[in-house]
Every structure is written in structure tokens, then in C-alpha cells.
């Protein structure tokens, strides 16, 4: 994992409150798993049908019946339950998951999210992302601020097919932490060593910055 | 939603969250699964103008029968009240509004809410008076009735065994409407004969995952009608 | 129980095949319970949430969590399962119950059934009868041939609100066993000592009788 | 429906009931819960022009991946095939019709069939391309998408433990779509690591009551991919 990714995860770990139910999307968000200590009373939901999962310890053999939605062999913690896919998504649609972390191809000023399809290039199906994005109480996006060609991923308007409309609460990238507000994107924290103008340069969306309240991470 | 680590409560505290005029789902088919202790606490606290959603009206003098006799219930959404002559009399006097649904449709209306839907399409009741007044839709060459999801402010449920996160296990025919109601109400108060530490329940054996349960209270097995029934068939 | 009722039940017991799933309605049909021996591999479904129930033996204490849909404290047999009300009615709507026995206020030539409401006099709610009548593979009605005033219950057309349309397969009364056919009601068996003209006298519906094939019970 | 006392079968016999062109639901999310032994038997028997309904396409060379690679599958109704590059390639070449649904909607379409409904009303996907082409209805001041129930001729499911009446218990995340599919298909063939006498399973622990299961076969834990996975995350 890159230093940028580690910074994103370390910052994201502060979003989780003991006692919450949390869902971790495939890819980078799954790694947040390792930032939630065993003694923390948090239940991680995986939409394939488990509430209360944790990474396997180094000395634990895989249980062939127990994976997370990304396909990794995992373990459970005390208080865990397992259930079928209808129950799992009922939990999601009834907003019983407190916070979910997801990756993104694009996010925009309205909180629209695109993270499942690149027409003509990538369309394996949306999996559980749509229900999670639309219904979970708080959706936090973890992604690189720019794609590998340097193009901004934080846009004025998403151009790819949407996962869900107006669903994102907060975006955490290697460069900034931004909240989606009725007035657009508000920068909460900015990466150590980065200037506001450098951040704006790397972003297509309009950014509201209150320098007096700006945090560093 | 209450945090996982703050769900285990005293019964007085849990029930005090219910205001006058609330809509309340109550588990149970006959006595099994009826949360008698929670109902008695509601009776003691005095909430009124309630809308109850329950399969039946229990029997005179027990469970929701007490709430109905005390005039606390404005409206009852149910499938069958044949075992409670007081409820039938109150209905006939116009003191209790009663809305009746076939039992399986009532269960599915609640389940539809629990799954976060707005309703479902059914052929049950087509050609009978149940379908009169129900909105219909033509699809694939047939007429289907649209049954709307039934949500509620609160659910009172009874479980055999719980943990303090609110995971629930039901027993025998005391399950009935309880797991459905636990998903359909905004705030879910569960009573259980035992509330143990997380990890006490086998993950596969849990019927209602804690995500749906707001508060869990421990009740004694011989409290109220829980262990000594008026009606023994 | 009257001799007539016992005759109805004894005849009804022949309708059950080992290996079947059976539902018994409230009232007389519930008593059929006692005609299904413990060693017979039949699972009785009760819509409050149990498949595989049996009557309690004389020396068994009641289990306060275990009733049938009529409210009687019952027991279970090997192979039993318990479940919630949604599962119980899914089983009914998916026609997974092979045969159900029900009482009736009125049945008619088309197989229409009325057994839940007498407007102005009796309307406690329909309970589970509607789904059972509409969806179970085979519906057998067990009832007295005439009401307590001697009026026929087997009619040309039901006059009371229907439980379900064209749902009845067979009717077993104290006087006859009748099948609902596209040509109307066909008498299968007639009670010992009763003549066909006496049977017709006691019945409003048209009855088709093939005397050469008529059984006695 | 098969009589209770005649459900316990040999795998060859159970799978032989499936004709060419059948629609078949297949349990499993990734490897857990995938009925690998039943799929391998289907591969051996040669049925073709199949419509499969499965959450995913497994991975290349295992489970339904084998059926797809062998050209047996005409159409796949699924939620995500990202772990099977062969399936994606077959889709892109136009050799495999793929219909994609959001996972929770796919689960509910199957559950809706299992409950005997014709469909349900949802707001999931409104405002996205998932809603394009979907019939809609206005109700209570909002627009709802109508998702139709998804039935199938057969379901192949995997359970941990069964009895010879066909009662099933699933384990851990091997449950997933299995209990839903067991209710939605006309004929349900279950494989289980153990098939015991009735009475061996606790009534409260049974996830799929035997009423829904047509045939049950016992499979060895180390048969096929069941106990040794290609993919270890």
C-alpha cells in the first residue's frame, strides 16, 4: 500500500465511532478493516451476509464458508450474525448501516457518485454498491484525488453512469477531506504540505475553504 | 439508531420513549411471542390514542386485550380478533377502529416495510371483498392487487434469548410476526428471557440481527402472563 | 364429538397420503389430527409457524411457546421446523401444502367457499383462510351437510362473502362425499342408509350421481 | 412435489430431471454456498441452452465458470461478474447474454417469487440507468419502480446439514442466495454435507423448511471445489 493510501485510511479511521455498524466497500475501503482494533465495539457488515466480521489473524486458518463481499476469507467477532442476501439488503435499505466507505471513479459537487461502470471498457455489474450508496446513513468516499493520468476525480458533475444521486456525505482523498453541503464541497482538512491553491488546481469542482477552520492530516 | 454498546436498558426507560398517538407493532400469535411485559409497562405508563398492529387481539384481560379494555387503542390493524369478545364488542360499539387483512397479506405488508419497499403485487383476494378498494395494476395479462408496505413508529417484540447488542433468537411458534416487525418499525424494543454478552449466540442461530433492534430488556419468565396463560387449548 | 362428526373425520383420514404436507383448519378439521398416527410420515402445517406438529400425548405438559393456529398447545414430531409468519404464508402461496381441510358456512357448485363472515353477525377477520383456500393444491371441506336449522350448506351459489373463488376440490359431510368437477358436483360416496333422493332433498346444489360407482361410508 | 419420504436421492438421478433449455437458479456468493457437486454433475450430463440465475459467475474454471466455458449457458441473470474474466469475454463476444441487476434487487426479485408475489415497488435505482426501461407507478406522491418477481424451473442449492425430508441448515456466508432460491424455483435440488434422519435438526435452527425442497443429495466435503478453493483472499 502506498503512503497516500495509508494516509487516507488513517484519516478515515477517525470516522468510525464505537457502537456503530460499518460497511467497507471493495478495494481500498476494505483495508480500513485493519484500522479497527479487535477491542473496539464496531460491527462490520459485509453484504454477502455477515454482520461482525474482522480480518483473520495471521495464525488463523481460512474458513471456506466465510468470506467478505470482496472474496477474502475472514473471521467473525463476538456479537456477529450471518444471514441470507435478502436480510442483508433489508438492513441496507432500512438504513441500519451507520456508515459505509466506498471507492469512486468520480464524485461531484452534488454528492453524486459514479463507481461501477465505464461504458465500453468496464461493466462487470453493480453488485451491492447501488443500495449501499442510496440508503446507508452516511457514505464516505475514499479515493485518490486524481486518476493515474492526473485528471481530477472530484468533478463539477459526474460524467460516468451514476451509482446513486446525491448520496455522498464526505470525501477523503490523499489531498483533502471534503464535505458535501447544500453550498457545494467544503474542505474540512487539507493534506500536510499542500496549499489551498495546489488543491484547487487538482480539483475540477468548486471548493469552499474557510482557512481559519482548516485542519491538516 | 442507538449505538450497539448502549442498547441494554431498563424496561421503564425503553417504553418511556413511546409517545401518545404512536403506531406500535406488537409481536405474537395468540399468547406465544406476545411481549406481555412490555405491554404491561405501556399500560402502566399510560400512553393513549395508540394505533396497534398485531395479528390478533390476544384474549380478554391479557396482553393487548388490557390496552383495548382500558381505552388506550384508537385503531387496530389485524387479521383475526375472534378470541377477544371485548375487542369485537368495542369494534361493534364504534370505540375501536379495526382494519382487517388476510393473515398472509398482513405478514407481507409488514415484511415489505422491513425490506424497505413501498409495496407488492399479489393475486391474493382478487374476486373477494378484500380486493374492493385496493388499487390494481395490469401486468403480463393479469390484474394484480397492490398491497402497500406497513411501517410503524415502534415495534414491541418478544425473544427467547438475546445479547446486549440486540441480537435475537425466537423459540417454537413464539416467532410468528416478531422478526418481521423488528425490521419494519423505526424503533424496536425487544424483551427477552435472557440477555447475555455478545458471543453467546451462534451466528447461524440468530433470527433477528442486532442492526434492527434499538433496545433490549430482560424480563423474568414468570412475569405477567408470560409463563401462566389464561387460555390452555 | 357427535357420531356424524366422527364419520366425517374417519372418511377424511383416507384423503391423506404418507409423505404429504397437510394443513388443518380451525374447528372440526383440527380433530383430524387424532386420525394421523405418530408413525405415519405426514407433516402437519399450522400457519402460525410450524410444520410437523402433532397433538400432545396425555402425559405431555404444555409447551407455552407452541400452539397451533387454533390456540391449542401442541407438540412436534421428528422433521418439524418452526418459522415466522412470512415464511409460513410463502409456503402456502407457493402451493407447498399438499392438502388443507377446512370448515364451511357455504360451498357451491363452482367450488366457491364462504367460511369467514356473516355480515352484521360474525366478522372477526379472515385469519389465514383466504391464502389457504386460494393456493393450497387440494382443498377438502369438512362440514355438516345442513346447518342447525336444517338449511342446506351445499348451494347452487354462495350468498355469504367468499373466502376464495373456485377453490374447493372435495366436500365431505355427514351425508356425502362430493367432488367439484367442471360439470358441477359429483357424488363419490353416500352415507350408509341414506338414499340418493334423501341426499338431493337435503342439498340445494344440483348433484351428479352415477349409482354404479357410488361408494358408501 | 415429491413426497417427504421419497426425497433423498442419488445425485445423478436428481440432476437428470433437468432438461435442455431450463432456467436454473444457482446459490452461492463467490465460492461459499455454491453447489459445486451439482454443477459438476450438470456439466457431466450435458444439458445446454441454460438460463442461469446466480449472484456472480464464480471464477474461471470453477462452478458455473465451467458451464459458461463449455458453452452451456445461453443467458446469465446476475449482479456482478467481475471475478470471472471468461464470462466477461463471452459477454463481450456476444456469446453469453448477461442481464445485470443491483444485488439487493436481484435478491428481492427472487424473494418476491419465493413469497408467491408478482413483484414489488422500490425506489432503488431511481435516477440511474437501472431505472431506464423499468415500469413505474406513482403512489403517495412519489414514483416507484416495479421490479418483477423472478421465478425459475430449478434451483441448485448448497447446505451444510439436511435431513432426508429436505430440511436445510446453511453455515456462515454460505447462506447468501440459497434460502431465497429454494423458495422461488419449482423444483429444488439441494446438496448437503450430511443428510440425517428427521429429528436430527433443531426446529428453530432450520433455515429452509423441507416443504420447499424437492430432492436432497449428500456430497462429500472434499468433492470438487467444495473444500479446496481456487481463490483464497
Automatic annotation (TrEMBL), chains A, C:
Query: Which SUPFAM superfamilies does the entry mention?
Result: NagB/RpiA/CoA transferase-like
Q: Enumerate the Pfam families for this protein.
A: CoA_trans
Which InterPro entries does UniProt cross-reference here?
3-oxoacid_CoA-transf_B, CoA_trans_fam_I, NagB/RpiA_transferase-like
Which superkingdom does the taxonomy of this entry point to? Answer: Bacteria
* Keywords attached to this entry: Transferase
The UniProt family comment states: Belongs to the 3-oxoacid CoA-transferase subunit B family.
| Name of the molecule in the record | 3-oxoacid CoA-transferase subunit B
Organism the protein comes from: Billgrantia ethanolica
UniProtKB/TrEMBL annotation, chains B, D:
Q: Which InterPro entries match?
A: 3-oxoacid_CoA-transf_A, CoA_trans_fam_I, NagB/RpiA_transferase-like
Q: Name one GO molecular function term.
A: transferase activity
- The source's superkingdom equals Bacteria
Entry-linked SMART domains: CoA_trans
Q: Which UniProt keywords apply?
A: Transferase
Keyword check for Transit peptide: no
Transferase in keyword set: yes
Per the UniProt record, one Pfam family is CoA_trans
- Put simply, this protein is called CoA transferase subunit A
Amino acid at each position: 500500500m502506498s503512503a497516500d493510501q495509508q494516509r487516507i485510511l488513517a484519516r478515515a479511521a477517525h470516522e468510525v465511532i464505537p457502537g456503530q455498524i460499518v460497511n467497507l466497500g471493495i478495494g481500498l475501503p476494505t483495508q480500513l478493516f485493519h484500522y479497527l482494533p479487535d477491542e473496539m465495539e464496531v460491527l462490520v457488515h459485509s453484504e454477502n451476509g455477515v454482520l461482525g466480521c474482522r480480518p483473520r489473524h495471521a495464525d488463523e486458518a481460512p474458513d471456506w464458508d466465510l468470506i467478505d463481499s470482496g472474496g477474502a476469507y475472514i473471521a467473525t467477532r463476538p456479537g456477529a450474525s450471518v444471514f441470507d442476501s435478502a436480510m442483508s439488503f433489508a438492513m441496507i435499505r432500512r438504513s441500519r448501516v451507520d456508515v459505509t466507505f466506498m471507492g469512486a471513479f468520480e464524485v461531484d459537487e452534488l454528492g453524486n457518485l459514479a463507481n461501477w461502470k465505464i461504458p465500453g471498457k468496464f461493466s462487470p455489474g453493480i453488485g451491492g454498491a447501488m443500495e449501499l450508496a442510496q440508503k446507508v446513513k452516511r457514505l464516505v468516499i475514499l479515493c485518490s484525488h486524481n486518476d493515474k493520468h492526473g485528471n481530477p476525480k472530484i468533478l463539477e458533475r459526474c460524467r460516468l453512469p451514476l451509482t446513486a444521486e446525491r448520496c455522498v456525505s464526505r470525501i477523503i482523498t490523499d489531498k483533502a477531506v471534503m464535505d458535501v453541503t447544500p453550498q457545494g464541497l467544503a474542505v474540512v482538512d487539507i493534506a500536510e504540505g499542500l496549499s489551498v491553491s495546489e488543491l484547487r488546481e487538482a480539483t475540477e469542482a468548486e471548493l469552499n475553504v474557510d482557512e481559519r477552520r482548516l485542519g491538516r492530516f | 439508531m442507538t449505538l450497539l454498546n448502549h442498547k441494554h436498558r431498563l424496561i421503564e426507560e425503553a417504553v418511556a420513549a413511546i409517545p401518545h398517538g404512536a403506531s406500535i407493532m406488537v409481536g405474537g400469535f395468540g399468547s406465544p411471542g406476545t411481549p406481555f411485559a412490555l405491554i404491561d409497562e405501556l399500560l402502566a405508563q399510560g400512553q393513549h390514542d395508540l394505533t396497534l398492529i398485531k395479528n390478533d387481539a390476544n384474549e380478554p384481560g391479557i396482553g393487548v386485550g388490557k390496552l383495548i379494555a382500558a381505552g388506550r387503542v384508537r385503531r387496530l390493524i389485524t387479521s383475526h380478533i375472534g378470541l377477544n369478545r371485548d375487542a369485537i364488542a368495542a369494534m361493534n360499539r364504534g370505540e375501536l377502529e379495526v382494519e382487517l387483512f388476510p393473515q398472509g397479506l398482513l405478514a407481507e405488508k409488514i415484511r415489505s416495510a422491513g425490506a424497505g419497499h413501498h409495496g407488492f403485487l399479489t393475486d391474493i383476494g382478487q374476486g373477494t371483498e378484500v380486493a374492493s378498494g385496493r388499487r390494481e395494476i395490469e401486468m403480463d395479462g393479469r390484474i394484480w392487487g397492490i398491497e402497500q408496505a406497513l411501517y410503524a413508529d415502534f415495534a414491541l417484540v418478544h425473544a427467547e434469548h438475546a445479547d446486549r447488542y440486540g441480537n435475537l433468537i425466537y423459540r417454537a411458534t413464539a416467532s410468528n410476526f416478531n422478526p418481521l416487525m423488528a425490521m419494519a418499525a423505526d424503533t424496536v424494543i425487544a424483551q427477552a428471557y435472557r440477555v447475555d454478552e455478545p458471543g453467546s449466540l451462534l451466528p447461524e442461530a440468530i433470527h433477528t440481527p442486532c442492526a434492527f433492534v434499538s433496545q433490549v430488556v430482560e424480563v423474568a419468565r414468570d412475569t405477567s402472563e408470560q409463563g401462566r396463560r389464561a387460555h390452555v387449548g
